[in-house]
Amino acid sequence: MGNGIVNPLSAVIFLLIFDCVYTESASTTESIHFLKPGDVIENNKPGLQTFCHSAKPKYMKHMWESLTIYLRTNIENYDVYNGKTPEEVIQKHDDNHRSWNFNIFSIKKDKKFKINPFEDVCIGIYVHPSNLHKYTVGMIETRTDSSALILMVVGAVLFWSAYKLSKNTLFYYLMSIMLGITTSIIILVYFISKFLLKGKMMYITVLTGWTMSFYLFQMLWENTQLIIVQYREWVAWYILITSVISFVISYRFGPITNVRTKRIIQWFLQIIGLITMYNSSYLHEASAFLCILIFLLYKFSTILTQKGSTYCDHTRRKKESFPDSRRARKERITYSRKY
Asked: How many whole angstroms separate alpha carbon 136 and alpha carbon 44?
């Protein structure tokens, strides 16, 4: 009877002491590492290790630059936290470690983390004591990030071509199909969630509040790629059927003819283009400057085009009226000579 009481108490006390020890060790400076491009750090200790990068000075030549922190390990059971300071990472870890709850502060367990070179960024990696602890963390610098450059070009082309796209019939049908697919997925997810959150699941969601909802959403989002790979035939058929239905509906109502609606579509596309350009670079001051520049160039070219067309129309009307004025003058001269 005594052993039955002592053993659970001993286990609880041991877990509490173990928690305090690892929480205290997580806040020591030995567990905080500052990385620079090209650095590689090997770790063979359990617990939380924090890897930070100090912000670089903001220069225009670094506009397309990006940094990547990579993790090389065979460990499956680990948690990843992010923050701007080591204290923020440690706080997120402690909140999850002490609460005995869902790990809502842990980010997706990728092994590559693209970070902002112009901000203080920290990545915390917590390895559970029961696992092998060895892993390697390094940092890679990309001078010109091709994906960021492509985003900038795509945003600029979309902004500049918005007027023509808003009047293009093919673009109208493509956007209608994409909108139909997206809307059908949202409706499908809604009905699935209504079906799943019945009975006990509904009571669990109500009791746990937003924590459970956020955990379920995170779990579904992380497994989206796995669902697409495993059920690619079903996904392909679903996209095909919803595309056909969307095309039939859009074909039934026909392309948009209202001038104001086309103008709204043009503004919407231009806003999306500017947002894409702004988010294409971590140096937001430079990307904002390019957004303002392309906006001014667009407005300036539009004004020049309008003035040029007005001048050409005025010149053409003047030339067309010139023979009439000469004919009228000749008629007046002839009339005055006759009388």
From this structure: 9
CA distance 218 to 12: 31
DSSP character for 290?
H
User: What are the DSSP calls for 70-84, one per residue?
Assistant: EEE----SEEEEEES
Average pLDDT of the segment spanning 42-47: 84
* Residue spans of alpha helices (H) in 197-258: 200-208, 210-222, 224-230, 232-253
Taking the C-alpha atoms of residue 162 and residue 271, their distance in angstroms, rounded to an integer, is: 10
Nearest to 256 by CA among 168, 179, 180: 168
Residue 80 near residue 16 (C-beta atoms within 8 A) = no
Residue pointed to by tokens 């209608």 = 176
Task: Please calculate the CA angle 188-194-197 and round it to the nearest 5 degrees.
Answer: 135
195 SS3 class: helix
What pLDDT, in 10s, does the model give residues 138-169? Answer: 999 988 888 899 999 999 999 999 999 998 98
Q: CA angle 42-47-52, nearest 5°?
A: 55
DSSP lists the bridge partners of residue 42 as 136
Long-range contacts of residues 186-194, Cβ cutoff 8 Å, at least 24 apart: none
Residue 22 CA to residue 49 CA, distance in Å, equals: 11
pTM over 0.85: no
* Percentages of the chain per state (helix, strand, coil), in multiples of 5: 65, 15, 20
